[in-house]
Design a protein that fits this description.
There is one protein chain. Helices cover 31% and strands 28% of the residues. With 230 residues, it is an alpha+beta fold. It has two domains: 89 residues; 89 residues, Aminopeptidase, CATH 3.40.630.
Amino acid sequence: MEQAVLDWVARDPVGYDYLKDFHRRGGAVCFADEAGLVLYDKTIDIAYVGGTVPWRELDILGKAMLTLTDSPALAEALLAAGRYKERMDCRQAFYLKKEPPAVTLRPGVTMRPLTMEDMDFVLENYHNPGAYESHIRGRIAEGMVAGEVDGQLAGFAGVHQEGALGMLEVVPAFRRRGLAEALEAAVIGRVLDQGGFPYCHVRLGNTASESLQEKLGLVFDEKRTLVWLE
């Protein structure tokens, strides 16, 4: 791993571990100095930014489909300059334990790997701009989890292409049966088995997701607000 990434993450080994994870998954260093770090994964067209960077000199901050920054001031500058049109402010939560959350499945609820045969179900029920087949194929190939109730597919979860926990959906008819908790716990277990860092981004104001993360034992980063730009 490049020393520039290790040096930056060393400033806050837990809070900035998501940058190291993104680099491990393919985010290349395209800028680094004492004040900031920019990583870019051209395969998925996403940039991660830590700290303060000379954004006017970095064309990638605007050309990348999505950019994540821990600087609200940088987000405002990029929006004001017209490089991006929309923002999503969020809190980061991370799972620091070595063992996955212990979740007891309710009667009739089972977990299994999601497969390509489940594609139509995912496309129909995934309420996100990433709900297109080529993207979902990649997520299933990396490893998603399916939840069933009495043998009927009822929900799923996985890891976003940049590495964050998510893609969590439960069909309305099967909610309030502990499926969301069980699905995320299973995904956390997969990430830990692969030597990864389980973390997620929760949109500000999403109290339901905040409660779920706390119930599963994730810890929220109180030092910074992250901003996704599109």
